[in-house]
Design goal:
The protein is of the alpha/beta class. Helix content is about 30%, strand content about 25%. The protein is built from twelve helices and 21 strands. Strands 4, 14, 15, 16, 17, 18, 19, 20 and 21 form a nine-stranded mixed sheet that branches. The protein has an eight-stranded parallel β-barrel with strand order 5-6-7-8-9-11-12-13, surrounded by seven helices. It is globular, with a radius of gyration of 24 Å.
Length: about 475
Amino acid sequence: MNNPLVPSWLAENKDLNALDSNIWPSSAVRNERGELELAGLGAPELVRQYGSPLYVIDQADFEARLEKVRSAFEVAARQAGTSVKLYYASKALLTTEIARWVVKAGYAIDVSTGGELAVALAAGTGGDRLGVHGNNKSLVEIGRAVSADVSAIVIDSEIEIERIASIAGAQDKIQPVRLRVNSGVHASTHEYLATAREDQKFGIALEDVPQMVEKIRSHSHLRFLGLHSHIGSQIFAVEGFVAAAEKLLDVHAELLSGGEVPELNLGGGFGISYTAADNPMPIDELAEQIVGAVQSKCEALGIDIPRLAFEPGRIIAGPAGVTLYSVGTTKDVFVAESGSGSNRRYVSVDGGMSDNIRPALYGAEYSAALASRSSNLDGVLSRVVGKHCESGDIVVRHEMLPQDLAVNDLLAVPATGAYCFSLSSNYNFVPRPALIAVKDGKARALVRAESEQDLLERDLGYQPGGGE
């Protein structure tokens, strides 16, 4: 009998042992014992070695996505008669090792805080491979960026023009800058993720751009590169990118009368599949349509097509990541629904909103699968929840999981490579999990797991032994 609590996009008769290639890393398979394997390593062995919960990044998958995205935009740019520079959006997932993967693949790195800049520099990233964002850059952060000779600083407000010019002048440098523009284009995305709306903290209003660019050009220690736009995140359709590009190019054409405008940065936000219901446009098609629209608009305006820049992050890191959890308890809850009712099984795991805040923050949907074995039993509608003292502590809102799922089984949640580690916290004094990379049958830790002792040692009132 159909359960009315099952959303229309979730198949009740799905193969519970299957691993959808649109959601899981390319190396994900089930071995002869039914265990989930990533890069030839079984989930139970990884948990025995590194603990649970555990963030796992398939390095080969990550690197393949770097190449696929780079190739898609380079081919599209070449066909349009221009070139492209890609900045990996480090807020998605960043460690010193990951920064090295990104730079080796030919990318620059986009950072938005002093901390992200510090990690990128610690990885040996050169300034020509760095771009700096942020709506509230401190004088220290700007100074460090100028000292590092970063390829661009994105100006987010009028006050930053004087700040950056002053610091660049003090260092006797000419700092390249972009101007972030609030295009007013509304991407089809969650309200909190939409970052090009008029009433929000990012960017300069479109009508104020000429005045701001004139101010930038008045400073001998600043070099204006062009405009920047970012319309949102987890976007499946191309129309928002095209509309934003066309609006920016109208202003771009006007600015050419006052000097060169060599670049146009159209940001990122390209969506990925979290569930079988998600259907993002393939990146090669997306790149071709965006760049093609830019070319057409430039031809209509009678201007040369500028060098283009994009900032992919989630589309690279997200699908390469899987989080492993251990099941602690299960219970069935009867939910009344329109005079009748049905059961929903609650599966509690040893992590939760401290290692994946997105379902609580955005209502994000994820998938899950039994990882320590296979099962031939039918599925039951389940909700995977965490151990935190919050009713909204949900990891996977809707999933069909095997009837025999039991305590100490392992669950795997795919597509967690982006933002889960980055947004992790110590809520309820829960230590953060390790982040490991797997490749060619080998695993290594990128970031070690925290311990309760780590948390205590940050408490300045802590006295070993519980002294008074």
